[in-house]
Amino acid sequence: MALIASSFAAGLLFGLGLIISQMVNPAKVLAFLDIFGNWDPSLAFVMGGAVLVSALGYAYAKRRGVPVLAPKLEIPTRRDLEPRLLTGAAIFGIGWGLVGLCPGPALTILPFGHWQAFVFVAALLAGMAIFRFVPADWPQSTFRRSAKEAGT
Amino acid sequence: MDHFTPVPALIGGLLIGASTALFLVLNGRIAGISGILGGLLQPARSDLGWRLAFLAGLLIAPLLYAAVSGSLPPVELDAPTGLLVLAGLLVGFGTRLGAGCTSGHGVCGIGRGSPRSIAATLVFMMTAILTVFVTRHLMGG
């Protein structure tokens, strides 16, 4: 029960942060990404503030060793940069740049009542569902095959 | 830069950071929205409760904000349906393939100095900036 309450509190805090910082406004996000146009650097302050507190939280969690409500810290330990990670990030960035919505703001604006947000979230869930059919070694497998075909 | 709003941006950022810190210290997990949402589509259902609770918090945030302040900030989203569908598919697929989005990689990952998250953030920032450049300045959209 405590785990549910703390998750709810974290979600609420996250959503309020997105609203207050105006990250929920796609036009604001696109203005930040438009560095060759009428650039709005506000989002750099959102990222800066968020990363700062996140880093403090991480330092404290590491020093504590175990979380308050769970048996152990579930932190990714991989450090390798493989094609799957970078391909996924590149695809995500294109989608983000097309309308200015990433997953957090897209969900948070649902209660605002814009039909566009519902279309976007439905497509986002479909994209996540499609991902489940992707082989575990893609796109590395494709790179290896084309390297073999090229005779290297 | 008449639209530059550094103070609310910083305050909002600090709150987002506080959320990820709280989630890590209490629950021991990374507050990555795409991961929390994507986990709902996986067969393992043991962690359904906290995932739904986090998402419920996100959805209740605008209601609480509106109740306290009396209004909601503007949401300017006038993209046509086809573009919304394409963008949504790319964001959903890309964040799962790349194991994270702006929160998981951008905020939490950079916060703990993960080389994978730093690289992923640089890549999605680059392709997003490039996409805006192409659609706004090359295609004149």
UniProtKB/TrEMBL annotation, chain A:
The keyword Transmembrane applies. Keywords: Membrane, Transmembrane, Transmembrane helix. InterPro entries: DUF6691 (IPR046513). The chain crosses the membrane at residues 41-61, 81-101, 113-134. This is YeeE/YedE family protein. It comes from Methylobacterium isbiliense.
TrEMBL record, chain B:
It is found in: Cell inner membrane. Keywords: Cell inner membrane, Cell membrane, Membrane, Transmembrane, Transmembrane helix, Transport. It is a multi-pass membrane protein. Its main location: membrane. The chain crosses the membrane at residues 6-27, 48-67, 79-97, 118-139. The keyword Cell inner membrane applies. This is Sulphur transport domain-containing protein. It comes from Methylobacterium isbiliense.
